[in-house]
Amino acid sequence: MATYGLRYQSDFYNYFIKLVSIKIYQQDYSDSVEDDVRVQSVTITANYQDDNTPIIGKGAKIVMVVDTDQMGYLDSMLVSYEKQFLCVIEYDSEVVFRGYSICDLNEKQLLPFATITIEFTDYLHRLEGKYPDCLSDMGINTSVFALVEEILGLTDLDLPLYINSTLFEDNMASAATDTFLPQVFVQNANFYSNSFNYDNIYDAINKTLQPFSAFLYSYDDKWVIERQEDITRNGNWVQYSAGIATEVSGLKEEIYKQGSSGESYEYVDCSQIIEYDSGLQTLIISLRDKILDTLVFNNYTTDVLSVADSTPDAGTLDKNTWYKYTSITIDEIGTLHAGVINQYVKWTTDHKDHGLCYNFEFQFNDGSYESTQLTIEYKMAADKSLAEILASQRVRISFYIRFDGGDYSNYYLYEGDFGNFVVHPFFPEIPYATYATFTPDINQRFVFTVSKTMDLSEIWEDLGYPTTQKFTIIFLPMEELILASWEPILTNYLGDIKVSINETELDNKIEYHLNQNFIKTEEYDLHLFDLDNINYSNGLELSDGTRTNLWASENSAIACPLYEIFAKCKFRKYGRTIHRLKGTILIDKPLKPFTLITDDNITNESDEVITFLLNGFTWDLNKGTYDIEAEEYTEEEVYVEGVTYNSAGEEEGQTDPPETPTGIVADQLVHRGTILVDWNPVSNAIGYKLQRRPYYSGGAWVADYKIVYTGTATYFHDAVSAEGDPTGETFLYKVCAYNAAGDSAYSDPPVEVVWT
User: What is the DSSP string of 85-152?
Assistant: First the structure.
């Protein structure tokens, strides 16, 4: 980190007779301090943008006055480069700003007594061109804490981090020194627009903190992350310093128009304005599903792990990790080989069955989707010119796919005689292969693209309809045909791998309603949310890789999906006629974003004093004034389960129960001892109830119906063999849908399965 020496200092007393000290440090400066600088004005601005931009940057503008013929010693700041100067502002001996110089627009006036204007920033808003190292590997997961640490590190301001949050997922540690940040992991792939380009750190942090309704800003000499839902609480916060978490007193700030000394404020020049804005009637949350571009990531390294078996056994490889056969040499990792392969690994082997291995997992499309199709695509090249293999004029590129876990663990998947895909316990004589011929060109190196799509519908049935399946894919070296014999090409380039499933990207919209006498509709995009399907990168994860599901916090005690917590925050702020306070206030106190502001003269229709949250502001340290904009916020309980509320906040609910589900089918899965039942979804249902006759009780099958499943899925694996011997029994199934208005009729006639 650069070393800064104090070069300029200006001290003065402001309107409240409080000492304001401006200290400007220059990089690599070691001479004496020039303290004859006169400061005309100092302003600090908190650049709050909106609820969907969690990063709140802070900047300072300093205007200095100097004799024109003596201003040369300040010119170094006017022509400075980024971060050449560090500014520290103290108010009554308390640090209220720390930031670096920027060179966008500095000014000076050529008058007898000239002014020089210099700007500084905490650098949060200057990081759109920085790309985080922790996201550079597309194939791994990163903790939210690591992502936050990286953006704070890029500012070069080494300050402790304070967190105000009571939000935890059901499976998280939630002691006094715990927060969700180190316990939540995001998939790096979610920040990639393709296999090579990913979000800058500014966009990545905004995208990550938004679903938590959390904001990042600097305050005094601290970094702060604060969830909107927790702003009004009185409890302790968590401080992180050097990675160590401790419980500390909160930084909650409150000011009152009619408050006691030190907390009270007054308006300046009748500047106060109250705006009334329509409340929110409909909230639409668009869950931006992002299917994984590839299940096998191009994140090779020169020091990949080794395996001693050319076809390693199931359970021996970690998921999403590259391995090489022990005799292979990894020569190089690079980009843009032959102008065609964007990301590649160069490797050498002398045997055609020795290759690179990768373990991946995907989720099958269930009965309500298309059949599952697995597509393997990649590029390969050899380290020789076409002229060097003119004798063969033919090459072969091959790969194996092997089951890892499940009913056919250690079996191979390959194409049968009739184009269907089958499993086989033996090593195939010829694996999947692409044969390529070429026209010799002595000036070229050859690059071939492999592409194979496999319809796994029948395989899914043979496997017993699992939800997920792991595979090991083994990439083999290229081979050339020499004298009727296939021989391995020693040095190969492998890259641009894309292993994908035919899921369709869905624009899921969740719609919540409140206060029918309003007309305003707001739509928000969420890129990170609870999602079980592992084919998508949106799902938040815990440290062990399991997906998050249900969350609770101090103001949302009933555990629910994260997007419902998000909706509650929005309705607490916008679920009524919105009171917005603007104006200039006078107060002898450093304020933070989200300071609570009250004025006993500003009440709602129930004559209750309104609490405002301070959003953006500009603080004039000379005058002791703040130009503010604040919005109303309450702690009231809000229910947002996708149902409708009237203007009094009373639940109206669904007016009609859902339609009866159709398309119910049931099939016996012999090798799993279950019966798979599925049905078509119903548009206005929030769940389903499945009944089966008979059920097992007291050592015998009882000829009556019993509910065997309640939930949101449109299928169920009924483990009848776990209850009793089902041989010869006839099982009947019927299903209904339900919502807030009640249950639909059950499907009729029941579907029948005779266990054989």
Answer: EEEEEEETTEEEEEEEE--S--EE--SSEEEEEEEEE-SGGG-TT---GGGS-TTSEEEHHHHHHHHH
Question: 291 lies in a domain?
Answer: no
- Please report the pLDDT score of residue 643 as a whole number: 45
Q: How many Cβ atoms sit within 10 Å of the Cβ of residue 169?
A: 21
560: left (phi over 0), alpha (psi -120 to 50) or beta: beta
**Domain at 699, CATH number:** 2.60.40.10
- What are the DSSP calls for 314-382, one per residue? TTSS-BT-EEEETT-EEEEEEEEETTTEEEEEEEE-S-TT--EEEEEEEE---TTSPPPEEEEEEEEEE
| Cβ neighbour number for residue 668 with a 10 Å cutoff | 17
ω into 749 cis (within 30 of 0): yes
User: Percentage of the chain surpassing pLDDT 70?
Assistant: 87
Residue 640 has pLDDT above 70, yes or no: no
391 against 707, higher pLDDT: 707
pTM of the model: 0.80
Q: To the nearest 10°, the Cα dihedral for 540, 545, 547, 552? A: -70
d(CA 638, CA 567): 9
Sequence-ordered alpha helix ranges (H) in 506-660:
562-574
**How much of the chain exceeds pLDDT 90, in percent?**
50
701: in domain: yes
Q: 427 lies in which domain range?
A: 305-501
Exposure string of 521-547, with b = 16+ CB inside 10 Å and e = fewer, is eeebebbbbbbebbbbbbbbbbeeeee
Q: How many domains would you assign to the chain?
A: 3
- C-alpha 71/C-alpha 198 separation (Å) is 45
- Which CATH number goes with the domain that contains 436? 2.60.120.260
Which of 501, 528, 543 terminates a domain? The answer is 501
Confidence of residue 437 (pLDDT cuts 50, 70, 90): low
Hey, what amino acid is at 587? Answer: I
Q: Does residue 367 fall inside a structural domain? A: yes
**Angle at the Cα of 285 (from 282 to 286), degrees rounded to 5?**
135
What whole-number distance in Å separates Cα of residue 555 and Cα of residue 235? Answer: 13
Q: Which residues contact 508 (CB under 8 A, 6 or more apart)?
A: 286, 287, 289
Mean pLDDT (whole number) for 304-312: 92
- The answer to whether 516 and 644 are in contact (CB under 8 A) is yes
**What pLDDT shows up at residue 736?**
93
Tell which of 99, 126, 153 closes a domain: 126
Residue 124's CB is within 10 A of a number of other CB atoms, namely 25
Token look-up 């903190």 returns 209
What DSSP element (H or E) covers 75? Answer: helix 75-78
Only one residue has tokens 């204007």, namely 117
pLDDT in tens, 125-138: 989 889 999 999 99
Under 8 Å between Cβ of 182 and 503: no
Q: How far apart are CA 647 and CA 641, in angstroms?
A: 17
For the chain, how many residues are written? 756
In a domain, 333, yes or no: yes
The residue behind tokens 């300093």 is 62
The mean pLDDT of 154-160, rounded to a whole number, is: 94
